[in-house]
Design a protein that fits this description.
The protein has 158 residues and is an alpha+beta fold. It contains three helices and seven strands. The protein has a seven-stranded antiparallel β-sheet. The radius of gyration is 15 Å and the shape is globular.
Length: 158
């Protein structure tokens, strides 16, 4: 079975360096990727994210390209075999920046009870609806990021 992947992106009218501040550190990730984030954004670091719905996820950082990309694996505390890989990229786009998030479940590396983003109870049971829910969650997270970045650019926060 091929990997299941969701990709979402958003353009933010702020310099990529400013947007990176919301990706490259736990205090920047908090508020948009989850309600709270306990993490040192460094390769090999382990931490946790509490989603806005109360779901607690564990994560391990797998890659950091300063100013460009953060990658990690994460899983729901209640479903440790349900592991997915997330890569968040920040790309310079003229007078703004584009943030692209890709979440992937590789069935070969996931346990038999694996699912994408904690949604599918089994790989065989993964349905379009499960993938749509994951995509919708990323749309919501990116929407929160856009709101936070806009406030920061206006000097209201940060």
């Amino acid at each position: 079975m091929d990997p299941l992947t969701i990709t979402r992106s958003i353009r933010i009218d702020a310099a990529s360096e400013a947007v990176w501040a919301s990706v490259g550190a736990a205090d920047g990730l908090a508020g948009w990727i989850g309600e709270s984030v306990d993490l040192d954004v460094a390769v090999g670091a382990a931490g946790s994210v509490v989603d806005h719905d109360g779901t607690r996820r564990r994560l391990v950082v797998t890659e950091v390209a300063e100013g460009e990309r953060v990658g990690f694996v994460w899983w729901d505390d209640d479903r440790p075999d349900d592991v997915s890989t997330v890569v968040i990229c920040v790309d310079d786009e003229g007078d703004g920046a584009r943030v692209t998030v890709t979440e992937t479940l590789d069935p070969v590396n996931a346990g038999a009870a694996g699912g994408l983003g904690g949604r599918a109870s089994s790989l065989a049971g993964a349905e379009v609806g499960d993938l749509v829910e994951v995509a919708d969650r990323w749309e919501g997270r990116l929407g929160r990021l856009l709101g936070l970045a806009s406030l920061a650019a206006a000097g209201v926060v940060g």
